[in-house]
Amino acid sequence: MSAPVVLEVENLNTSFLLPSGEVKALRDVSFQLRRGEILGLVGESGSGKSITGLSINGLLSPPGRVMSGSIRLHGEEITGLPHAAMRRLRGAKIAMVFQDPMMTLNPVLRIGVQMGDALRAHLRISERECRARSVAALEEVGIPAPEDRLNAFPHQLSGGMRQRVAVAIALLHRPDLVIMDEPTTALDVTIQGQILALVQKLCRERGTALIWITHDLAVVAGLAERILVMYAGRIVEDGAIDDVLDTPAHPYTSGLIDSVPSRAQRGQRLRQIPGRMPALTDLPEGCAFRPRCGFATEACAAPQALRALGGLGGRHVRCCHPLIPVPS
Length: 328
Fold this sequence. Notes:
The protein is built from ten helices and twelve strands. By secondary structure, the protein is an alpha/beta fold. The strands form two sheets. Strands 6-7-8-3-9-10-12-11 form an eight-stranded mixed beta sheet, sandwiched between helices. Helix 7 links the parallel strand 7 (177-181) and strand 8. It is globular, with a radius of gyration of 21 Å. InterPro entries: AAA+_ATPase (IPR003593), ABC_Ni/Peptide_Import (IPR050388), ABC_transporter-like_ATP-bd (IPR003439), ABC_transporter-like_CS (IPR017871), Oligopep_ABC_C (IPR013563), P-loop_NTPase (IPR027417). It is found in: Cell inner membrane.
């Protein structure tokens, strides 16, 4: 029996309305996320990964705006909710962890004060209970001597410790959905591995749905169950993580995988995708990857829809020359 759906995103379009024109950051983005599922969202910088997370969490700042589409949490529409209503959801039902924990942590407030503020934003609890829950949360994310850490300022902790505190704050209210935006990029490999093991354990035990936003395919390969590949604000491929990484269907996905340095032989030049992503204000007609693609033909100038891959349940590709056969 399938786990219940936590998040449904349908035809999401997000733009930045600038004096010079409309920047279409997301175009018709659609996906679902089930309870306990870990979804990897990958792509180059500027592909729309972080904007997807900010759009879901209602954290877009002007001139950014969700122009159309639907975001449903447990079947309830949250697109366009008033600010006060979204604040009641944010932290309690949806949480977000950013790449730099200093974006989350106030440098002039002690850790205990910040965790207490996060708890009291949604609960009426005593100071004693607040401290007990904060200590328990820090213990859960593997922070030693949690009582002492509550009295520390963020600058007194290492980068890995600060990120653990940010994760602990995000999980204080046991949210149904957590969005993590490249939370391990600035950490060393050992700490990165500890954070990955931690979030996998929490998702498995609590049934939390997780969106992990990253450009690092090696990280997402060992963490996620499903992957969405984004390019120029659109999903170009989705499917089970092993299927997509072992047999990529979109030339862009294949290019990303080939660009991983570990795949290069000693003495060989590192592979790379030629060119760069087009400006979102000047996208080519049809497939946005067309100017960089070695398989491009005139047919690629036509609009491309996500198509199901034959014989591979749940996989889709937005390409008229996929590397895997698509049923007619």
